[in-house]
Automatic annotation (TrEMBL):
Residues of the Rhodanese domain: 159-224
Protein name according to UniProt: Arylmalonate decarboxylase
Lineage of the species this protein comes from: Bacteria, Pseudomonadati, Pseudomonadota, Alphaproteobacteria, Hyphomicrobiales
Matching PANTHER family: BLR3294 PROTEIN
Species this protein is from: Mesorhizobium australicum
Length: 235
């Protein structure tokens, strides 16, 4: 059985529900950072623990490591994201990637440059998302968030509430080529595939893309039938 390491924002470090739903035969080893809030200050305080956490996961014998926090890796821009990935690889000795890089990889595989974005974040963090993705060549047709700063509140958001926000951003961005659901704490497997059928375009989420990318990084097949276009065919 493949063993994959996930560095997650909450301190308790449980396996993300979407990862378990998509890949029940993968052994996910999880370690938490203890991020105190979805703010620049919260990310800045926690990000210094990424290297040590990568070493912990490497000691458990994982084949690859993914930093399972989107805003945690985009908040300071592309150069810092690259530094994080290099630091994780150096500390662990195994392939490593951030969730932001995984999202960009997924959008590129789907050939989607114009995107509509639904997030858990405040307007301040949404602006960080916009700056990062525009710097990488994407067009943000519309972005809207739930205004959450506390991690437990993200985990409490019902999947249907996430779907409603996705519908609103998609309606405001008819030219978008994909819909992005950003924040790995949002549980999206119950609604993502149905949203794709309803909206007629790819719908990707942080938690699902992070799980997909981590399994691929470990050298295994990341096909997950019934979960959406990207995960069924590998795009």
């Amino acid at each position: 059985m493949v063993k994959v390491g996930l560095i997650v924002p909450p301190l308790d470090g449980i396996v993300p529900p979407d990862a378990a739903a998509m890949y029940p035969d993968v052994a996910f080893e999880v370690a938490g950072l203890g991020v105190r809030g979805l703010t620049a200050e919260g990310y800045g305080e926690a990000v210094g623990r990424v290297e040590a956490t990568a070493r912990v996961l490497a000691s458990r014998g994982v084949s690859a490591i993914l930093l399972f926090g989107t805003s945690l890796s985009f908040f300071k821009g592309p150069a810092f994201n690259g530094e994080l990935e290099a630091a994780m690889r150096e500390a662990s000795g195994v392939p490593a990637m951030t969730l932001t890089s995984a999202m960009i990889q997924a959008l590129e595989r789907l050939r989607a440059r114009r995107i509509a974005v639904a997030t858990a974040y405040t307007a301040e963090v949404d602006a960080m998302f916009r700056r990062y993705f525009e710097a990488c060549g994407f067009e943000i047709e519309r972005i809207s968030g739930l205004g959450i700063t506390a991690l437990p509140e993200v985990e409490a958001v019902a999947p249907e509430a996430i779907a409603d926000l996705a519908r609103r951003v998609a309606a405001g961005a008819p030219d978008a080529e994909a819909v992005v659901l950003s924040c790995a704490g949002m549980r999206t497997t119950p609604v993502a595939a149905a949203l794709e059928r309803e909206l007629g375009k790819p719908v990707i989420s942080s938690a699902m893309v992070g799980s997909w990318a981590a399994v691929r990084l470990a050298g295994s097949s990341a096909i997950s039938p019934g979960m959406g276009r990207l995960y069924e065919t590998g795009a």
